[in-house]
Amino acid sequence: MPHVTGAAVRDPELARLTGLPFDDPDEVIRAAIAEASVPALLMSMVHMTGDLAILDELPGPYMLIAMDLQGAMSEPDKQVVRDRAFEVARDYRDRGCPPPFIPDEHQLRVMLDVMSAGQVTEEFVDYIAADLRFTDKDQAGPVLSSTAEQRAGFPVVVIGCGESGLLAGIKLKQAGIPFTIIDKQSGVGGTWLANRYPGCRVDIASQYYTYSFEPIDHWQHHYATQPEILQYLGDVMDRYQIGEHIRFETEVIGAAWDEATSTWQVQIRDAAGVCETLTARGLICAVGQFSNPVIPDIKGAKGFDCPSFHTADWDDSVDLAGKRVAVIGAGASGFQLVPAIAETTAHVDVYQRTAQWMAPNVNYHAPVGDGARWATRHLPYYGRWLRFVTWWPIADALNEQITIDPEWDNGGLSVSAGNHTIREVFVAWMQAFTTDEELLAKVTPKYPPMGKRTLQDDGTWLTTLQRDDVELITDGVAEITPDGVTDGAGVHRPADVLLWATGFDVNHQLGPVDIRGVGGVGLNDAWGDAAYAYLGITVNDFPNFFCMFGPGTNAVNGASLIYNSECQMRYILGCIDMVLTSGAASAMPRAEVCTDYDRRSQARLKTMVYSHPAVTSSYYKNSAGELPTLFAWRIVDYWKWTHRPNPDDYELDKP
Known about the structure:
A hairpin with a 2-residue loop joins strand 14 and strand 15 (about 485). The protein has a five-stranded parallel sheet with strand order 3-2-1-7-19, covered by helices on one side. A five-stranded parallel sheet has the order 8-17-9-10-13, with helices on one face. It is an alpha/beta fold. It has 21 helices and 21 strands.
């Protein structure tokens, strides 16, 4: 495991990522340690001292718990660690904050064994080391063999400037590849600009929902709110000076592959209606899967006389104070929205199609204290380990719990012994907030946990549903009338405002964008509602075309979409480099490679909880019951597969 040397930590940029020197007084250090994650503190002490014996002397977590930054430790044990951490940090300060200790491969295994209570096995070590910044595999890769002159002659158009489109711009700029980003919205952010409804926030911990090369220590919440994320993306755009390459308020109407010139001809239209054609060697589609809001085809939906809009098209001019509001949908957006508006509305009626599983998460709405931010900024590698604490327990560590055990039979309530344990934890959590059996029956799903998107809950949802001015309706929606909603039982409830919290059409992510490849074949036609791409990135018959957050990459296994985007962009740069160094005009995956990958992906998904027959009405599924949007494997697999393209997988078309 080649690793970053201790001397390299003196580099200001690396220090910004792994811990800045400090000379703060004792009381600042003590306050920070009191708020810090104890497992991450344990690891940071090793970096400050170079002494792994600390891990034998001090208590450690007997497991890492999803959504809990402190791990499974008793309060007295936590205090023992905090007391020692204060002494170590104070000594480190007094020694002038020398370059932190960087473990070799064996030492890292020892640290991971303590940190994860033995869960991390050999196959994960390189992948975790890269994310911790002990190696340069993520940040420096792929090593480009093409010349700067070759890359300068490979212009790229990027469709969309959400987190993945912005990332594409950063990496293209660093590689010296000219690019233009086109986005129909007025600014950076993608779904985080479009979705600005009250209560909107991320359900992946902030430290993980962050570019690995651009962490920040000033998140206001452990699970960042929409304004925080939008600010973060804007700051990153400015830091890397990407704004000058973006054309906002401009739509991509379509793009066609010109076989004669081996270029993409991209048709765009600005806000004034002026059309233009851009020529590019490469085309990156970064529109994502949450670009096209869905309003169900319900009788009378267009006949409501009062304000009505989707959460992804929030109308800031509508004041909800004192209004009777109907919210259709109790999935992720409705789950966040309803508690945020209940304090000001006169009444909220929530129309729930199916119940959602809620994961216990005491930090979901919790702010990050000043001390915790100080620890992230200054304690060596603390922030990197904190990031590990937030993702490992909910990602690859849960592989067994989301896999169907064919020998397990529990009437569709769970898919394995481990999955059933999760169910019991989730049910107990709900029971802790209400003894109302009728309400519990409404909110307890009748399908296995993890089968649909799992929501994060600190008790706010059930507390809100028990308010006198909030009602949960589970009889369906029969009709929208000019003044309200009639449910499936025939009960009519008046409404002053109708809010659609009904999600997105993830199986038709291109929307109206018409992309045509070899021979004029349309991508929307080729995909139908079963979109596919090799590694979720490249598509046969579409040369030099690349997806980000494309088909089969929805990270329902607990991964951060930003992390997956970094894997995808690393692979895309490798593809561009492959084209240039081979002297080819273009590359596209071989049809059999693309087909085989899609076949294996769908076969794997059939062994997972998402495909269980009890999981009905899931937005993951298409009309055939397939799961084209979901990623089927572990994050470590994707990380390995996207290091660099295999030329044997591609048709390289010579000019």
